[in-house]
Amino acid sequence: MADEAKAKGNAAFSAGNYSDAIRHFTDAINLSPTNHVLYSNRSAAYASLNQFTEALTDAKKTVDLKPDWSKGYSRLGAAHHGLRQYDDAVSAYKKGLEVDPNNETLKSGLSDAQSAQSAAASRSRDSARGGPANSLFGDAFGPDMLAKLTADPSTRMFMQQPDFVNMMMDLQRNPNNLNLYLKDQRVMQALSVLLNVKMQSGSGSGFGDDVEMPDSPPKERKRPADEAESAKEKKREPEPEPEPMDVSEEEREVKERKAQAQKEKEAGNGAYKKKDFDTAIGHYSKAIELDDTDISFLTNRAAVYLEMGKYDECIKDCDKAVERGRELRSDYKMVARALTRKGTALVKMAKTSKDYEPAIETFQKALTEHRNPDTLKKLNDAERAKKELEQQEYYDPELAEKEREKGNEYFKEQKYPDAIRHYTEALRRNPKDPKAYSNRAACYTKLGAMPEGLKDAEKCIEIDPKFSKGYTRKGAIQFFMKEFDKALETYQEGLKHDPQNPELLDGVRSCVQQINRASRGDLTPDELKERQAKAMQDPEIQNILTDPVMAQVLKDLQENPKAAQDHMKNPSVMNKIQKLISAGIVQMR
Fold it and tell me: What is the DSSP string of 518-563?
């Protein structure tokens, strides 16, 4: 049950439904309160909703339960960072790196926390000197910033764009970075909402839909250094416009190389569509030589390698695209696409269940960059394929038989929990063995776990309908549960396959005796009351009692014996009356 709730939480989180994810993770925690992964997942969900206080509580619980798990410290650092507790965030990330020194997430988190720590110290010094020039803007980025932007119709859609959210959270941590983002029209619109003033802005956001291979040229994003220079230019006093000047030879060459690279890419796309993969590779390779600032050339070439079955080359290009994309601050969707293609190549190469693990990890990283439904489907498919392969790899009928024999030995010694453990292992090794299900059903019966025993007995019959033991197990459990009419049906069904089976015949006799006791009125008052109460919970009995035809039959039984005799000639009515008699609802005197 806890795993089921966890799976629902993961699915909701992947879909961006963080409130639902929190609810499902909470259900899982209630069922498994010592599972550190559940607290970690819920902490991430809280953090996604900017509920950092709750995220911190769960992160601390995660670390308490599993001090040697690096992800717990990542959650702890993120929560502290969200609460602007930068010293604590730095400390958490450093502790995590003591556990896992090569963890990239912790390294990145530590870098961000240290930057925010330095920025906070700088703001404190500015405040002591009377405050920075843009203190008005600093006030705009208060604790309720994201809530205001989500509530306003003009900025609500921006909150679904990860790069915009990251920019605004960076500004919340360090308002002095505002100059870096002034060219982004979304930021200007956000400022107009936060400051409650109208600002002049360009038309349109300039953001298109995610395009599948072949890739469209990505929207160019300037590096922070370039943006800072642009911001400084804006601050300068207006000067007389100079006479037009020719661009430098170097600038002209760069521009020409970029234009030529785009032509090579378009030629590669055309060759790809014609399945002329070698020609496409040549064009994309030339584009990469001409311009190494556009990672779509790499991701396109990786897609061709993927089609050609050259998975190592595909992975190599994807790794380069991710590394270069992060250096250039490329669009998150492009980085996610590279990771998705790498994961797809890893799946194609997988031969064992273990081989799926790096693919699953890569798809998960892609989803952290951009939540693409196709990537989520690929992740789910990979996890399902891994599980199926694990079951195939674990399948071993010989070991299953040995485990079943061990279970039999413990059963003879009346050590039923130990017997169940070995029968369960036998079924993991061979899930199609009806004898293991039958034996485990017997153990559950001995322990009074009737629902579990009944489920195993029914599974036994499902696997082998001619296996008599399945019917004797199921009938015995139903008899113990005082469902005598159902037990009788089970024993009679078994006799169709094995007419002379003594256990089945004896079961029929026992059921008939119990049913006849009810029809003769031989039940004690307590037995009658118990049987009636149990019967009223049976949907079949409830349907009989609410049937208008049967209501008239029961009335005739009391008031009109002749009409009742006519009713009894109907086999269907007679069968229903017999069920009511067996249940103690109707007594014939």
Answer: HHHT-S-HHHHHHHHHHHTT-HHHHHHHH-HHHHHHHHHHHH-HHH
